[in-house]
Amino acid sequence: MIYLDQAATSLIKPASVEHAVVRAMRTMASPGRGGHEPAMRAAETVFRARELAAELFHLNGPDQVVFTCNATHGLNLAIRTLVKPGAPVVISGFEHNSVTRPLHALNARIRVAGRRLFDPESVLKDFAEMLPGASCTVCTYVSNAFGYILPIYEIADLCRKEGVPLIVDASQAAGVLELDMQRLHAAFAAMPGHKSLFGPQGTGLLLCGMTAEPLLYGGSGSESLEQNMPDYLPDRLEAGTHNVCGIAGLLAGMEYVREKGSEQILQGEKALLRQCVEELSDTGLQLFAGDPSLQCGVLSLRSPEIDCETLASRLAERGVCVRSGLHCAPFAHESAGTLETGTVRLSFSPMLDAVQISRACDILRQSVAAG
């Protein structure tokens, strides 16, 4: 099997992640729910994960790190806190449904900025024009469909000048690109644990530059006499029992990222992307590749003769795992002109090597040639 679907989830993880999950299942109870050794061991693991996330993403302290089920959960927390029904909101032209559906549910008046692929100047121009009067901005750092790296720090500067709070969807960026919350001054940044942080599915982080309104209400292990949720983070947003096994695995995944270095991971993935582009340049496929400085380890492509679902199925039959379709990002495909066809998406991981990429390109070439 050649796994080229890292943008969906990191299937191949460091061995330490699996070991951490199993150890937690066998030795840890619930943090904040007792003073016995299994509960204390769980509390220590959860706190270490908060500390490491605060370190990786340059937060003032671990209390600003909230554990979520996934990035969607975190984005809903952030959007429900900052966006009132019917309010004007600016988004990029490359947002995921995890952003657009919560906004649609609130009947937000959406302004879409920057609909040209691999063109950061047009993004900044549109944001500058659309930000005045907006109640909030929600922007992806990296397009999940095309790997396009948006100029998030420049967008953050524009938001700060206009006094518009910023929510960052860091789903494809966390673990690969620098995410400095102190530089961004973002209200929130949401990310999954299971992509390039190499944690298990069912984990995520919400980085908080401000307090937020809960989506769930219930036990927090603190302030048990009060019927309101605690008014401080992270307890305010973490109702119910923590996913301790998942958090233990996420901690191990973040330790891997810290040890390997996000820059090294990024450059390795970019090298695999460039190799793919070179090896597929004579196939007749349309490759959505831009300036290397504007694209991380995601390559979308399509064939003028074979629909994307058929091509992906042929690859799957021969052990190459990709994703086809609209990737839960119709805004991005509309911006790129691929809404009617979708694309086949290849996404890269530090667990891959050049030999595997060459093999995958050979299989893709043969699949296209089969007509």
Describe this entry's structure for a reader.
- It is a single chain.
- Helix content is 40%, strand content 14%.
- The strands form three sheets. The chain has a seven-stranded mixed beta sheet with strand order 2-8-7-6-5-3-4, sandwiched between helices. Strands 9-10-13-12 form a four-stranded antiparallel beta sheet, with helices on one face.
- It is an alpha/beta fold and 371 residues long.
- The protein folds into two domains: 119 residues, Alpha-Beta Complex (Aspartate Aminotransferase, domain 1); 246 residues, Type I PLP-dependent aspartate aminotransferase-like (Major domain) (Aspartate Aminotransferase, domain 2, 3-Layer(aba) Sandwich).
- Helix 3 packs parallel to helix 4.
- The protein is built from twelve helices and 13 strands.
- The chain starts with a strand and ends with a helix.
CATH class of the largest domain, named Alpha Beta
Number of strands: 13
CATH architecture of the largest domain: 3-Layer(aba) Sandwich
Whole-number radius of gyration?
21 Å
Tell me, briefly, the overall form: globular
**Beta-strand percentage range:** 5-15%
Largest sheet: 7 strands, mixed
Helix content range of the residues, please? 25-40%
Q: CATH homologous superfamily name of the largest domain?
A: Type I PLP-dependent aspartate aminotransferase-like (Major domain)
Counting DSSP H or I runs of 4 or more residues, the number of helices is: 12
Gap between N and C termini: 23 Å
Uncertain regions spanning at least 5 consecutive residues: none
What is the residue-averaged pLDDT?
A: 96
Helices and strands, in order, run as: EHHEHEHEHEHEHEEHHEEHEEHEH
- How many domains comprise the coordinates? 2
As laid out across the biggest beta sheet, the strand order is: 2-8-7-6-5-3-4
CATH topology of the largest domain: Aspartate Aminotransferase, domain 2
Q: Structural class, from secondary structure content? A: alpha/beta
